[in-house]
Specification:
Length: about 375
């Protein structure tokens, strides 16, 4: 067995173990402190699971490998939205907090569109990265002031002693270290395999590195969903998407001399895919405030279709045109119609509910 294979296996074990202890400890800390679990998911867990993206982006940017850096950020957000939410919902239908639909998802979409607009010039400058970092600070202040978003937890029987808090903090730190270390070992071994196969840096960034740095989000979301901590599961994904664009791109861009060049394909395809995936969250989350299994399967289908497209494009395969035409003229229109119909039915049901129950609105 080769060294990269060994590190790949060790990394996978560290990821799974780190996620398990992290979800347990963070959930307990949220109850002890009285902070809503949604806010914990959007901040503490999202920051921790975004750490691999931040570390790799800063390192790639300093080394001049900006294609890997941007591919990592955009690819990670695509995999967060389509792969992680899809996988999690396929195992256990995910309830979505109303605050996410009202505030955080629109914020995520707006920031994604802003990055797209900034990238249209063909580069992202130091001052544009400074703008993203400033928006990050404003968003964190907003979250710090927000106390709503979760059903109040009963804390009468919770041990709130100093020793319990310290122990759970230490467990959280250990979980983050295992999570991030495991992700790094997996990524390093996977990149070696990809380079041996002759894959381009942008494709490596959009796929292997993106999926690798999203592994913490994947295992945390799955572990949280299976434990019933669904505010942490969905909140960590949305929070990670926001932080990837504001913190990973914004902050890492401050360490890079000169503007960050943006390849045309990112603007003409990958960022548009990300905007579409982000926008798709609004009607999906709105219907019943949950992601059911068929919606999770749809997210997964689009993710694997995206990966298949990248493979066909990198290989310049003859089937590429046929595949794109199938998506544009058949599959995507059918999905849009299904989602719009489902959303319209949900809106009609809520309208009737409000008419019969004027004192019981959605809030």
């Amino acid at each position: 067995m080769t060294a990269p294979t060994i590190w790949f296996i060790v990394g996978l074990i560290a990821l799974i173990g780190g996620a398990e202890v992290l979800v347990r400890s963070v959930s307990k800390l949220a109850v002890i402190s009285g902070i809503p679990k949604l806010v914990i998911g959007l901040t503490v867990v999202a920051f921790g699971t975004s750490a691999p993206e931040l570390a790799i982006s800063i390192q790639a940017g300093i080394e001049g490998k900006t294609d890997i850096m941007l591919g990592n950020i955009i690819g990670s957000n695509i995999s967060n939205t389509l792969l992680i939410l899809g996988l999690s919902a396929l195992f256990i239908p995910l309830k979505v907090n109303k605050y996410l639909i009202k505030w955080d998802v629109p914020i995520m979409i707006a920031i994604t569109i802003l990055v797209y607009v900034l990238a249209l010039s063909g580069s992202i400058s130091f001052f544009e990265c400074l703008l993203l970092t400033t928006i990050l600070i404003i968003y964190l202040i907003y979250l710090a002031r927000r106390r709503g978003g979760s059903t109040p937890e009963s804390i009468e029987t919770v041990d709130r002693s100093v020793s319990t808090i310290v122990i759970n903090l230490l467990i959280t730190i250990v979980g983050f270290i295992a999570l991030i270390s495991g992700a790094n070992w997996l990524i390093e071994s996977a990149v070696i395999f990809a380079e041996m196969a002759g894959v381009s840096e942008l494709t490596i960034g959009l796929t292997i590195v993106a999926i690798g740095t999203s592994l913490p989000e994947i295992v945390v979301a799955l572990a949280a969903a299976m434990k019933g901590e669904r505010d942490i599961a969905v909140g960590s994904v949305i929070g990670s998407n926001i932080l990837n664009l504001l913190a990973v791109l914004g902050v890492s861009g401050l360490f890079i001399p000169g503007a960050i060049p943006v390849q045309d394909v990112l603007v003409s395809f990958d960022l548009i895919v990300l905007i579409a995936a982000s926008a798709l969250c609004v009607p999906i989350f709105y219907t019943g405030y949950k992601i059911v299994r068929w919606e999770g399967a749809m997210f997964l289908f689009f993710y694997f279709a995206y990966l298949f497209y990248l493979y066909l494009a990198s290989a310049n395969h003859d089937f590429l045109t046929v595949f794109v035409n199938m998506l544009i003229y058949f599959i995507i229109p059918v999905v849009i119609l299904a989602v719009l119909l489902n959303t319209a039915l949900e809106a009609k049901k809520r309208f009737r509910f409000r008419n019969f129950n004027p004192n019981n609105g959605d809030g």
